[in-house]
Each structure stands twice: as C-alpha cells, then as structure tokens.
Amino acid sequence: MSALLRVAGLRKRFGGLVATDDVSFEVSAGEIVGLIGPNGAGKTTLFNQLAGLIRPDAGRIEVGGVDLTGMAPHRVCGQGVVKTFQNVASFADMTVLENATVGGLARAGLDEARARGLRALQRVGLAGREHVLAADLSLPEKARLEIARALATGPRLMLLDEAMATLTHHEQREVVDLVRALRDEGITFLVIEHHMKTIMSMCERVLVLNFGRLIAQGTPAQVSRDPAVISAYLGSSVPEADHA
Ligand SMILES: Nc1ncnc2c1ncn2[C@@H]1O[C@H](COP(=O)(O)OP(=O)(O)O)[C@@H](O)[C@H]1O
Ligand SMILES: [Mg+2]
C-alpha cells in the first residue's frame, strides 16, 4: 500500500507551549488509524494543521503526493481532506439536508451540492430525516449527520475528532460499522477517540501523542501494552484495558 498521508516534522507552538512537537508519521490509503493521547496531548491541534485550520510553524503535510502545508482550508478540502469537529458542530437551526448541503458546497454549486448532500444522508442512514431540524436529531443521528456533512465534500481522507464521544457503546459500534464500510468504499480514516474499546475494534493501527510528541505507534494491542503509553496515561484517565 502507498502512503496517502505523509506528515514530517510537524511543529506548532502556542506561546511557550509546544502543542505538536516534531510529529512524523504516514497513513496508507485504505487504513483506519487511531490517534490517542491524554487530554491536551495535541490531537486536535494536529488535526487542525492537517485540515489547514492552523498553519504549522515547521514541517510538511503531503496528501497523495501534493504538498498541503499552509494551504487554506477550502483548498485542503478540494484535495479531499475533511475534518469533523470535536463538539458536534451542525447548524442546529438548519435542516438535516441543509447541513449536508453545506458539505457539498465545498466542492460544487447549489444543485449539485444538494444532490451530494442527499446521497451522503442516504449513505449514513439518515434518509427520511432530510427535513428535520438538526437540533431535533438524537445524539447518534447527530454523529451520523457530522459524517454525512464530511462525506458530501467527496473526501479521500476523513479526520474524525471524537465524533462518537456522546454515544453509548452500542451506538459507537454502529458508527464503527459505518466507518469500516466507508473505508471499504475507498475512504481513509484518521480517528481521535478516547474509548479504548472502540479504538481496538475500529483501527488496525494507533498513534499515541503525549505533550505534543508521538511516543508510540503500533497495533491497538501493542500500544496498550507499551510502558511509555501506560505511564503517559498515569494520573489522567487511563484507557480501559481491553485485550479481547
Ligand atoms: N488556539 C490555542 N491557543 C493556545 N493554546 C492552545 C490552542 N489550542 C490548543 N492549545 C493548547 O495546546 C495543547 C493541545 O491542545 P489540543 O490539541 O486541543 O489537545 P487534545 O485534542 O489532545 O486534547 C493544550 O495544552 C491546549 O491548551
Ligand atoms: Mg481534542
């Protein structure tokens, strides 16, 4: 498999704090890769740089051989990279279809954007809910809408930032199944998620950040046994041990 995403030496400083510190890794096309680490480790900051929302101080981001470093978000989106937001960010007073159409507008005019929105809603299981206000959706439906909005941009790399945080274990399983199906259709995923069970069942490979540095990477079983990872989580929320 060829690398779809190449990140090299990525660095971002906020005043005296180094939020991502010389981070380098690759993601192959068709992978589902988890990104974990304690609160404040720099996960969202890393995603924001990949999506063009924050300009790195140093380093390089390449997707499909194209250098995206410092590119504006709409151009990054045009290269097929899209990010969902940590706290469900749908426009509450807009309908489900209007929300999904916003995703489509990143790549097309209104009619085509609406068609893209409709297709994305069908794909995530929200057909029939098009005219409901986003505010009136259940939590699992809101998570699906976030994915639909991202899907409507026509991505090849989706960055999910705790898209499942508000869901029960059973509801998370359903989103995991959806992500796996979308991967089988050709989309590559990088996923921030703190439920270790969900990461375990979803990802072939996991990257671990701590204080902005990449301290481990490997299979979920490997990283959950890694002494550096275990000590990084000491004193914060230790991920549930799960070697099933
Ligand atoms: N815009 C910002 N300005 C200043 N500090 C920030 C900003 N965004 C994030 N940080 C800090 O950078 C560190 C990493 O944050 P973040 O990437 O949100 O971590 P995570 O997503 O892993 O919880 C934290 O210490 C956070 O307070
Ligand atoms: Mg975060």
Overview of this protein structure:
This protein has 244 residues and is an alpha/beta fold. It has two domains: 1-80 and 156-244, Rossmann fold (3-Layer(aba) Sandwich), CATH 3.40.50.300; 91-154. The two termini are 27 Å apart. Helix 4 (110-123) packs across helix 5. It has nine helices and ten strands. 36% of the residues lie in helices and 25% in strands. A hairpin with a 2-residue loop joins strand 1 (3-14) and strand 2. The strands form two sheets. A six-stranded mixed beta sheet has the order 6-7-8-3-9-10, with helices on both faces. Strands 2-1-4-5 form a four-stranded antiparallel beta sheet, covered by helices on one side. The mean pLDDT is 91. The structure holds adenosine-5'-diphosphate and magnesium ion. Adenosine-5'-diphosphate (ADP) is lined by residues 14, 17, 19, 37, 39-45.
Q: Layout of SSEs?
A:
Elements lengths: L2 E12 L2 E12 L3 E5 L6 H8 L7 E6 L2 E2 L5 H6 L2 E3 L12 H10 L4 H14 L15 H13 L5 E5 L7 H16 L3 E5 L3 H7 L2 E6 L2 E6 L1 H6 L1 H7 L11
Parallel strand pairs: 3-8, 3-9, 6-7, 7-8
Antiparallel strand pairs: 1-2, 1-4, 4-5, 9-10
Helix pairs in contact: 3-4, 3-5, 4-5
What labels would you give this structure?
244 residues, alpha/beta, Rossmann fold, six-stranded mixed beta sheet, 9 helices, 36% helix, binds adenosine-5'-diphosphate, binds magnesium ion
Largest sheet: 6 strands, mixed
Q: What number of domains?
A: 2
Mean pLDDT metric: 91
Helix content: 25-40%
Total number of helices? 9
